[in-house]
Design a protein that fits this description.
Bound molecules: NADP nicotinamide-adenine-dinucleotide phosphate
Helix content of chain A: 25-40%
Number of helices of chain B: 11
Number of strands of chain B: 14
Shape of chain A: globular
Largest sheet of chain B: 8 strands, mixed
Largest sheet of chain A: 8 strands, mixed
Distance between the termini of chain B: 48 Å
Oligomer: heterodimer
Largest interface: A-B, 33 and 40 residues
Strand order of the largest sheet of chain A: 8-12-13-7-14-15-16-17
Radius of gyration of chain A: 24 Å
Distance between the termini of chain A: 48 Å
Helix content of chain B: 25-40%
């Protein structure tokens, strides 16, 4: 009965159990995404959601809370009260502490009832949206009460961070894999669910003209930027533990880099794609301690401006200790030791309180071999071609090249050829959580992170974390509203490069 | 322009000038070059619409403009009117600024007015106007063209022809079947209209053993949507007994309800469907299927649609 040319993908029947249902992520992202999937008719009719947290609430109270959150956080789509009523029938709530074995027994009973009443065929997706320190405990609790197995399938989704360093990532994995098979563990990296990140693959492997240029012979260097214009905005206490390197580079940006730099997979299947991503991550050169200072820069913002507004520094944030050594900015030069990329630096930077919110990948090509038009470019060296893959805020692709100014003389100037996904195609893009939830329910792990990828990316950043832990930084070292510390510019200058101002 | 010969080269030149002028206006209007977002000339296909001259140009313009978001195209609109030998053409652009963006998107349009007698000339003008290397799609909404047997004349212009068999004056199933037999790619908005219903039914029925399915419709005579639905169910559930049942009173012929065995019903309402499986009752939204949404879906498919072709063959067999 399927019609792949026309039908949108639909999820098989299942129940989703959300641990941490009273939390921020559930409110802001998960429930709106589930509602939106229901709105589009992507979910099976008997779909069910069971929320678990400590706070005592009746099913109706939980539904009311979720109703308000969905209304508030549903982006660019309409809220349909009647459809909500129907969706809400599938919502229920259990108050319980993840440390209490009785709560798993209660969940077991509840799930059995739901499987019967809502025809979920005993398929269950456990979504852990609690503090990361509770992931293993929950998995063990589920296993101890036999909820990790059943008539239907069982899958467990965990949110980043997957450990706080290589060792803890391995310890977490050791505990998880006693309870679930690797194929049942879905590590969510919402960056990989973004349309543009998926489009990088379409762009690279769906077109014949770019791939031949995609190597050290033609590419000079790559810059990956994820800039936030806001500071930590009240999440100082959480952020203090993580920092920019852990919070962004170790997971999201290294995954983006892997997508840009990986070899073509032999097929677009979950394992083939993830094998290539993992291979690339393993090919990243591991820094020796004496190389870190030259190849990685930590920063922390001090008072400055955000637009015309004066803003305070990180140390003034609530919950942040006055001598905090947390990096709110990190920039790293990575090298990839394989035939395709030998000698091509990949510069990755991310930070809070930068001049604007922008995420992009800039691929700078080598200049033309002969500066034939030196005079025409007013003495400047030949201008390199640049390909920009924009992820945020406007998704799109730009190519910079030079062209002749109309007129009699041979005057050249750089021009930009732009393609905007949003404006060239008006269709609404699904949110990353919609894509990823539908994938998990449908059993497609292509955009989820596998343990070998997690370990490879921790391995790449571990020496930096270790070295930084021994340093006493003179923070703050950049003012809010500027493009980060000077040391980051110096890092590129050593290679003869400069950061792009996106 | 009436009376004078129409030259495609001239129309193309006018299109070129149109862009140059718009580019100039854009530069003059933006006070700061770095912030003047410029103009994006987007094109993914040539869309050639044949409409009767009576059709409201404003609403047609709106439909075409809304298609541009997903399928930026060079639009050629041929307005077919009564009377003797008449042919004229004009060129203009339709631009809009997508919400939150700083760059306008513009699509070019060529409007040709012609009588049925001139269809052969129209073909000779339109074919050089098509954008090279991109798909060409014909939207046939003109009853005059159908009545006069002009379809064959315009078919060579496109890679795909789209009709809406639920409109009066549209070609019938027999004629559509003939197009498929001749190897053309065809689309019918009456078929597109039931995509969401089919997708819902596939989700509900795929893992079940089915005895009987009845498609109930409004009226005495089943309309094309109900007939497509019946034929699709027949071809995809070969072991089930599939039937059509009318409400008996006068009505639109559109499907109202699908009954599966004793315990599953899907009631179709405006904008949604209510599914009942035994005690379980659930609502699913079914987009209303405005013309532009249907066309958007149909323009995305410029290859042979085997499922549609199989179902149409089932009806015409
Ligand atoms: N927020 C985001 O935008 C975001 C983005 C990316 C990743 N993440 C990750 O997603 C996870 C959840 O984030 P969050 O911001 O939603 O956290 P949160 O707001 O702290 O929510 C966690 C919820 O878990 C419940 N909980 C705490 N201890 C519990 C226990 N012992 N037993 C049962 N329930 C317990 C709490 O509700 P009760 O008080 O009712 O128990 C709390 O509301 C974290 O791992 C975070 O790193 C979040």
């Amino acid at each position: 009965m399927q019609d792949p040319l026309r039908f949108h993908r639909k999820a098989p029947p299942c129940a989703v159990v959300i641990y941490g249902a009273n939390g921020d992520l559930t409110k802001r992202k998960l429930m709106p995404a589930l509602y939106r999937l229901a709105y589009e008719g992507r979910l099976a009719p008997g779909f069910a959601v069971i929320g678990v947290s400590r706070t005592a609430m009746t099913d109706d109270e939980f539904r009311d809370r979720m109703h308000d959150s969905v209304r508030k956080f549903l982006e660019d789509s309409p809220f349909d009260e009647e459809l909500w009523q129907s969706f809400a029938q599938g919502l229920s709530y259990i108050a319980g502490d993840v440390g209490d074995p009785a709560s798993y027994a209660e969940l077991g009973k509840h799930l059995a009832g739901i499987s019967e009443a809502r025809k979920t065929e005993d398929n269950v997706l456990f979504y852990l949206s609690t503090q990361p320190s509770q992931y293993a405990e929950i998995a063990e609790g589920l296993a101890a009460s036999g909820l990790n197995k059943g008539q239907g399938w069982r899958r467990i989704v965990i949110e980043k961070p997957f450990g706080h360093d290589l060792d803890s990532a391995r310890v977490l994995q050791g505990r998880l894999q006693k309870c679930f098979n690797e194929s049942e563990i879905y590590r969510i990296d919402h960056y990989l669910g973004k349309e543009t990140v998926q489009n990088i693959m379409a762009f690279r492997f769906g077109n014949g003209i770019f791939e031949p240029l995609w190597n050290r012979t033609y590419i000079d260097h790559v810059q990956i930027t994820a800039a936030e214009s806001i500071g930590v905005e009240g999440r100082g206490a959480y952020y203090q533990e993580a920092g920019a390197l852990r919070d962004m580079i170790q997971n999201h940006l290294l995954q983006v880099m892997a997508t840009v730099a990986m070899e073509p997979a032999s097929s677009f299947t979950s394992d083939a794609v993830r094998d290539e991503r993992a291979k690339l991550l393993r090919a990243i050169r591991i820094m020796r301690p004496d190389q870190v200072a030259d190849n990685a820069v930590a920063g922390q913002y001090g008072p400055g401006r955000s637009g015309s507004e004066r803003v305070g520094g990180f140390l003034g944030e609530k919950g942040v200790s006055p001598d905090s050594q947390t990096n709110t900015y990190a920039a790293v030069t990575f090298l990839v030791d394989n035939w395709r990329w030998a000698g091509v630096p990949f510069y990755i930077r991310t930070g809070k309180a930068l001049p604007k919110r922008v995420s992009e990948i800039a691929i700078q090509f080598r200049t033309a071999p002969l500066a034939m038009f030196r005079k025409a470019t007013a003495g400047a060296e030949t201008v390199p071609n640049m390909l920009i893959l924009r992820i945020q805020p406007e998704e799109g692709i730009s190519l910079k090249f030079v062209s002749k100014r109309p007129g009699s003389g041979m005057q050249l100037r750089p021009v930009s050829m732009d393609f905007n996904y949003g404006s060239s195609f008006g269709e609404r893009s699904p949110s990353a959580y919609e894509t990823l939830l539908l994938d998990a329910i449908s059993g497609d792990a292509t955009l989820y992170t596998r343990q070998d990828m997690v370990e490879a990316s921790w391995t790449a950043v571990q020496p930096i974390m270790d070295y930084w832990a021994t340093q006493k930084f003179n923070f703050p070292n950049y003012a809010a509203g500027t493009w980060g510390p000077e040391a980051a510019d110096e890092m590129l200058a050593r290679w003869g490069h400069t950061w792009r101002k996106p | 322009m009436s009376g004078q010969p129409i030259k495609p080269d001239k129309i193309l030149k006018e299109l070129g000038e149109l862009w140059t002028n718009m580019g100039k206006e854009e530069v003059a209007g933006g006070d700061d070059q770095s912030h003047g977002g410029g103009l994006l000339r987007a094109c993914a296909m040539t869309l050639i619409s044949f409409v009767d001259d009576e059709e409201d140009p404003v609403s047609l313009g709106e439909t075409l403009a809304s298609l541009m978001k997903e399928h930026p195209s060079r639009a050629v609109v041929v307005r077919v009117r009564e009377g003797e030998d008449f042919l004229s053409a004009r060129v203009f652009a339709q631009c809009w600024m997508p919400f939150g963006q700083r760059r306008q998107i513009c699509c070019e349009q060529v409007e040709i007015t012609a009588t049925v007698d001139c269809l052969a000339d129209v073909a000779a003008i339109v074919s050089p106007l098509a954008v090279p290397d991109l798909p060409r799609v014909i939207l046939l909404r003109s009853a005059r063209v159908v009545r006069s047997g002009g379809i064959r004349k315009i078919l060579p212009l496109g890679d795909k022809i789209i009709v809406d068999s639920s409109r009066t004056g549209a070609p019938g199933f027999g004629e559509l079947g003939g197009l498929l037999d001749a190897g053309h790619i065809a689309g019918d908005l009456a078929w597109t209209r039931i995509t969401e219903i089919r997708s819902l039914l596939a989700q509900l029925l795929e893992s079940r053993k089915i005895g009987t399915v009845t498609v109930e419709y409004d009226g005495k005579e089943a309309g094309p949507e109900a007939r497509y639905l019946e034929a699709w169910l027949e071809t995809s559930l070969p072991d089930a007994r599939v039937g059509l049942k009318g409400s008996g009173s006068a009505g639109s012929g559109k499907p109202l309800m699908i009954r599966v065995d004793g315990d599953l019903t899907v009631q179709l309402m405006s904008g949604c469907a209510e599914v009942r499986i035994g005690e379980l009752k659930q609502r699913a939204s079914l987009p209303l299927g405005a013309d532009e949404e249907l066309l958007n879906a149909e323009l995305s498919i410029v290859v042979h649609d085997r499922v549609f072709e199989r179902v149409l063959n089932q009806i015409t067999a």
